[in-house]
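Hi all, posting the design record for the shared folder.

TITLE: backbone redesign
STEP: 1 of 1
STRUCTURE INPUT:
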């Protein structure tokens, strides 16, 4: 029995865990503490926005819950309804904490929604321009150059002056002023990928153009598209806040962060800083967290930038 035990083969070592591209991407992304912190902060902000009706102490869009007698209460004050206003109230008696949480909801909806739609439009036109070439490429890229020649805020103001206020109209305006960035980015990547052997093989197999564009060409153009999309989300949030601050964004009954800042702007020098200060901090933290993630995504998805 002892001889059998001595001659027994040693236990096999556990198989090495196969490193997939997704696992490598995750490990490289979380290797940066700054990007990880940005992701954690953004996740908290997104959860606050999603569960706003259950987290916020007050519905700031319900005019029946607002009491003008609670207007401009200091942070920590107790209102007439017994609610503790931890961040104070604005001039309409709206709880600032509730307003910020609901404002984040609008800002994220507008930012992510407009970026997603603009990426669909811009990526499709960029792929078509790179693949078709010739006159099609010239026409699309001249439209891109024309779009990018206008100041973004000026173009958005002109569009909203025509369409009017509203969340949907703000999304439409942002899509119109953002799609060109995606088109130019995807076209540059697609021009490189178009010369690859797999595209020539797909053409030799007489595959439909739509399948070549969206099943073969687009997946290889995703890394720069993801990076641009992340940055454009932050840019769209900032642009929406600017438009609302100027009075051409969302309606006053559904204030976003930009409109909350505008409501307290006139009180900044009278000591009632909290009406604009706390929404501004929330807007700043949101944009910075997204930019931190986007900046590191650029390093992870672009091997040339890795040190």
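Okay, here is what came back for every position:
SEQUENCE:
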């Amino acid at each position: 029995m002892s001889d059998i035990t001595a001659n027994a083969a040693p236990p096999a070592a556990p198989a090495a865990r196969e490193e997939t591209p997704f696992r490598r991407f995750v490990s490289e992304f979380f290797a940066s503490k700054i990007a990880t912190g940005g992701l954690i902060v953004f996740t908290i902000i997104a959860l606050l926005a999603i569960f706003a009706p259950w987290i916020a102490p007050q519905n700031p869009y319900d005019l029946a819950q607002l009491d003008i007698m609670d207007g401009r209460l200091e942070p920590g004050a107790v209102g007439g309804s017994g609610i503790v206003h931890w961040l104070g109230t604005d001039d309409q008696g709206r709880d600032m904490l509730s307003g910020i949480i609901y404002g984040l909801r609008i800002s994220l909806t507008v930012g992510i929604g407009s970026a997603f739609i603009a990426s669909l439009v811009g990526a499709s036109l960029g792929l078509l321009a790179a693949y078709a070439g010739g006159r099609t490429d010239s026409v699309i890229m001249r439209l891109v150059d024309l779009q990018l020649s206008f100041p973004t805020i000026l173009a958005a103001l002109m569009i909203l002056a025509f369409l009017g206020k509203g969340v949907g109209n703000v999304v439409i305006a942002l899509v119109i002023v953002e799609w060109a960035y995606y088109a130019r980015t995807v076209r540059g990547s697609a021009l490189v990928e178009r010369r690859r052997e797999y595209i020539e093989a797909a053409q030799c197999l007489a595959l439909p153009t739509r399948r070549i564009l969206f099943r073969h060409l687009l997946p290889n153009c995703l890394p720069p598209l993801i990076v641009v999309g992340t940055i454009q989300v932050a840019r769209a949030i900032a642009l929406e806040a600017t438009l609302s601050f100027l009075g051409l964004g969302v309606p006053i009954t559904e204030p976003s962060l930009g409109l909350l800042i505008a409501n307290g702007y006139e009180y900044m020098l009278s000591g009632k800083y909290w009406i604009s200060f706390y929404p501004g901090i929330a807007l700043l933290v949101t944009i910075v967290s997204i930019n931190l993630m986007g900046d590191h995504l650029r390093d992870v998805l672009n091997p040339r930038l890795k040190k």
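COMMENT: Residues 126 and 211 are 15 Å apart (CA to CA).
Let me know if anyone wants the other runs.
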